[in-house]
Amino acid sequence: MDHSRTLFEPDLTEVPAGANRRAFLMRSASIAAAAVLTGCTAEEKAMQVAAAAPRPQANTKMSPELDVVKKSNGPVMTTLEEFYKVGPGPSSSHTIGPMRITYDFYQRCTKLPRDQLAKASSMKVHLYGSLSATGKGHGTERAALAGVIGKEPATVDPLFLDNLREKPDQSFPVKLGEKNLTLSLKDIIYDAPKGDFPHANTMTCKLMGGDAVLYELEYYSVGGGFIEWKGYQPPKKGEPKYPYSTMKELQEHADKNKLSVAQVVMANEVAVSGKSEADVNAFADKILNAMVNTVNAGLKAPQGVLPGPIKLKTKAGEVYKRAMEDRYQRQQGLGVVSAYALAGSEENARGHLVITAPTGGSAGVIPALVYALGEGGRKLPREKLRDGLLAAAAIGYLCKHNATLAGAEGGCQAEIGVASAMGAALIAQASDFGHQVVANAAESSLEHHLGMTCDPVAGFVQVPCIERCAFGAVKAWTGFMIASNEIPANRRVDFDTTATAMALTAKEMNSKYKETSEGGLAVSLVLC
Ligand code: SF4
């Protein structure tokens, strides 16, 4: 059974749980009428009505105990490894987070005492809240199963996940010490979508001995691939060498110490994480390589249709081919950057490996720019790309610290907008511009995404997300071009002001436009 299709087996006589009956019937009638006008079949019409049905809304209240809720007033403490995470798309909160969770549980189980493991007979994963309500469309169950059988999110073979989608009845051995268990998708349970959970994305993982629970832990996928668990204590960290919580403070450190943005970030990374510069560079290289791989994989993928009900055709390869044939050189630049971004984003939609920069939905933007500055264009040396990645991280950290990175909290300005701002900073830093140009470029790109809503059609990270990554990458370049060609001190709007504006816009944005698929394109587009 294709689990992604189960969202679309509607009983049109039944009003979905949690939906307003009158609104549901009116929406069904108007969509059906639109479908008739556009020539949909009865089945396609039914799918469209189901897709438009309001989903059971999970409790979006968050426990004040969660570390993610305890907003720090202190300096930025985020590290590169926390920020850039590799894992399977299409969603940092619905696939990367859950897979990191089940892989963490698998690792804990391997360390349990031998006598406890001797009694084990199975493992169960329960998905609650939003993970239960929208997980099927994202393939959350496949990511969760891959983690709990011991596959690491950053290195899982995408073909394993593809194969699981095509043949969902397979079973897999899992070895816990000397104990061998067999698990399948039946062990991943879509549990209550509504309830009083500590976080909208709550999961429990259990090691079972018959009907008895031998070991259990409650986890939360708190956004951007970050995870926590019951009783979570954030890791102990060192004090940043150059503490900052705003761009203004970061720039003051840069001015006073004659440092670039990348150098400030590197010094803090070493101080906070306790790693050496060589270790930080090795991690940056791992992320850069993963970004290059995702673009290469997307460009080489045969043209086809992406998974899900939208039946969206891929276009990265074709846009790239046409761009390379283009006799207008400047147009060619726009074409290849767009193609690289489409390639990364289509890989995300396929559920293949992507990098949160800052999220899965925006995962085409930064890889496109890394590729364009590196092997797919300018061929800048690796050190410059590393510096760019560090400067981009500073923008992401500041947006996380002072606003949000989650479409569910701030709309698409928080995902593609932040990715584009990070991208502009990356280009400016990799091109050796000073901190004011880096800050201005990021400001310009973020400013022109303010107010952008999140309305993914049918809840799939495809429309508008895939093309939006191409626009985010191109706008990053536009932001850089403007910032690098004006007198830096003359810029009227500063980065901190725009980040504050994004936080305010996020707060005042109608909740229909925060990843609920209940507004905008999600209710306007007829799917056939
Ligand atoms: S529309 Fe929503 S899901 Fe898509 S990229 Fe933007 S924020 Fe992410």
pLDDT under 50 segments (min length 5)?
Answer: 1-38, 49-58
Give helix and strand order, one letter per element, not per position: HHHEHHEHHHEEEEEEHHHHHEHHHHHHHH
Oligomer classification: single chain
Shape: globular
- End-to-end separation in angstroms reads 22 Å
The number of helices is 21
Q: Spatial order of the strands in the main sheet?
A: 5-2-6-7-8
Count of beta strands: 9
Q: Name the hetero compounds present.
A: iron/sulfur cluster
Query: Mean pLDDT, rounded to whole units?
Result: 89
Structural class: alpha+beta
CA-based gyration radius: 23 Å
Describe the sheet with the most strands. 5 strands, mixed
How much helicity do the residues have? Answer: 40-55%
Number of domains: 3
Q: Approximately how much beta-strand content do the residues carry?
A: 5-15%
3D structure, described in words:
With 528 residues, this protein is an alpha+beta fold. It has three domains: 3-52, no CATH class; 91-229, D-3-phosphoglycerate dehydrogenase, domain 3 (60s Ribosomal Protein L30, Chain: A, 2-Layer Sandwich); 247-521, no CATH class. Helices cover 50% and strands 10% of the residues. It has helices at 21-38, 42-52, 80-83, 92-110, 114-118, 130-138, 140-148, 158-166, 247-257, 261-273, 277-300, 316-325, 329-349, 365-373, 382-402, 407-410, 416-430, 435-447, 465-484, 495-508, 521-524, and strands at residues 86-88, 122-127, 171-176, 179-184, 188-190, 202-209, 212-223, 226-229, 353-355. The strands form three sheets. Strands 5-2-6-7-8 form a five-stranded mixed β-sheet. Helix 11 (277-300) packs across helix 13 (329-349).
